[in-house]
Amino acid sequence: MILPIVGYGDPVLRKVGEALSPEYPGLKETIANMYETMYNACGVGLAAPQVGMSIRLFVIDTTPFGEDEELPIEEQKQLSGFKRTFINAIILKEEGELWGFNEGCLSIPEVREDVYRHEKITVEYYDEDFNVKTEVFDGLIARVIQHEYDHIEGVLFTDLISSLKKKLIKKKLQNIMDGKTRPDYRMKFCNKKGR
């Protein structure tokens, strides 16, 4: 089932997500709905707060990045078919240089900004079957994980840009809150009249 994506300004996007237990009701269905919602919106990652649930869950599929012919062939192969579910993720270590990339977010449509993140991370998480894993990721995969991880910590990519850039996008953010933005997917806006 395709869920509405919560827009910028909704308080759920600022909450730190609660940890999940294997007994969480309807977990498999929630995960399936999140993938379907993410694909419908042409995203590469989606966190539970973005669909109104303040829990520590996010899904990622970087396959669309694998079609970028400007990337080295090896990186294209790594990105193609990388699909993971992260439950109760904890970033244990961030390493390497900070590098910039133009990020966007399904909860903040029509806004893109350069964000600087570490190139390599070590993450501990549970998969959809509640098997614990500790893995090291780098490059674009690490970036997508960091972006989605921020969501379960109540952080948005717009928090990581300069105050000048924040001022420049203020009107766009207000338009999202007021429901004046029209993405190609279903959204729930916090200030829209008659919602």
TrEMBL record:
It catalyses: N-terminal N-formyl-L-methionyl-[peptide] + H2O = N-terminal L-methionyl-[peptide] + formate. Pfam families: Pep_deformylase. Signal peptide: none annotated. The active site is at 148. It comes from the Bacteria. Binds 1 Fe(2+) ion. Fe cation binds at residues 105, 147, 151. Gene3D superfamilies: Peptide deformylase (3.90.45.10). Its cofactor is Fe(2+). One of its GO terms (molecular function) is peptide deformylase activity. Its EC number is 3.5.1.88. Keywords: Hydrolase, Iron, Metal-binding, Protein biosynthesis. One of its GO terms (biological process) is translation. Removes the formyl group from the N-terminal Met of newly synthesized proteins. Requires at least a dipeptide for an efficient rate of reaction. N-terminal L-methionine is a prerequisite for activity but the enzyme has broad specificity at other positions. PANTHER family: PEPTIDE DEFORMYLASE. NCBIfam families: pept_deformyl, PRK00150.1-3. Belongs to the polypeptide deformylase family. This is Peptide deformylase. The gene is def.
